[in-house]
Each structure stands twice: as C-alpha cells, then as structure tokens.
Amino acid sequence: MSTVADKLAKKSAQKSSSKQVRLRLVYVDFWSAVKLSFLVAIAVAIVTLVSFLLVFLVVQSTGLIAQVDEFVSSFSDGAFSIQAAVGLPQVFAFGSVVAILNLVVVTVLGAVAAGIYNMAVKVTGGMLVGFTSN
C-alpha cells in the first residue's frame, strides 16, 4: 500500500538527482526536550500576559465592569465593589500567576513527552523520518 509521502518521494526522485535518506528517530535527548519546551513555555507565557491585558482593556473600555458593579451593588447595598477588586494591577498579577503555572506545566510536559517517547521506542522501534539533500 503506497502512501502520499511515498508518491511525493517518487516524484521528487524523478525530477532531481538529490539523495534521499530514511532515518529512524530512536532517541530524544531529555535536556534538549526540556530546553525546547521551556522556550515554548516562555512564548506561551508572554502571549498569556498580553491576552489578559487586552481582554481587560476591552472589557474596561466597553463599560462591562461598571455594569456588573451596579448589578452586584444592587444586591449587596454597596458593601462590595467589583471595580475596586478588578483593576489593572490585579489582572496583571493574576495573569502572571497563570503564566508562571503554564511555564512550569509546559516544561514538565515536554520532559514527560520525551521520556514517554524514549520508552515507546523500545516497543515500536522509533519513527521513520525521510531527509533529502538539495
């Protein structure tokens, strides 16, 4: 049974004289996976902080916080104010906590994925990867 990748490999072999090599990925270095997942986690943390800031600015500019504050104050007789509890410093602090937790979780998941792959290679023999030289 021929796959799409095999058909494309045959077409590219007919057009050019580049060498194709099929290698098997049998090991993922643990520390390389941790470093790469940490860098990805930093990018996700920055995106998280920016998105928290943007969502807060949109909610604040639409006046939604003031409307919710009026609604809550009708029940609590003005004893509790949402506007006092939800400000830019509080939102940024909460976003920072979420970003730090995501940083730890994504880094650990990258390490766990590398470990699981290295254990699965012993059963499956690894992943077949094709390379070509131009």
Summarize the structure.
With 134 residues, this protein is mostly helical. Helix content is 74%, strand content 9%.
Quick tags:
single chain; 134 residues; mainly alpha; 2 strands; 74% helix; elongated
Fold blueprint:
Blueprint (H helix, E strand, L loop, with lengths): L3 H12 L4 E6 L4 H33 L1 H13 L5 H4 L2 H37 L2 E6 L2
Antiparallel strand pairs: 1-2
Helix pairs in contact: 2-5
Give an overview in words.
- 74% of the residues lie in helices and 9% in strands.
- The chain contains five helices and two strands.
- Strands 1-2 form a two-stranded antiparallel sheet.
- It is elongated, with a radius of gyration of 26 Å.
- Helix 2 runs antiparallel to helix 5.
- The chain has 134 residues and is mainly α.
The major sheet is characterized as: 2 strands, antiparallel
Order of strands, main sheet, comes to 1-2
Helix-strand pattern, N to C?
HEHHHHE
Distance between the termini: 28 Å
Categorize the overall geometry.
elongated
- Beta content: 5-15%
> What would the average pLDDT be, to the nearest integer?
87
Q: Count helical runs.
A: 5
Kindly state the percentage of residues in helix: over 70%
Radius of gyration: 26 Å
Number of strands: 2
Counting helices, strands and paired strands, the structural category is mainly alpha
Low-confidence stretches: none
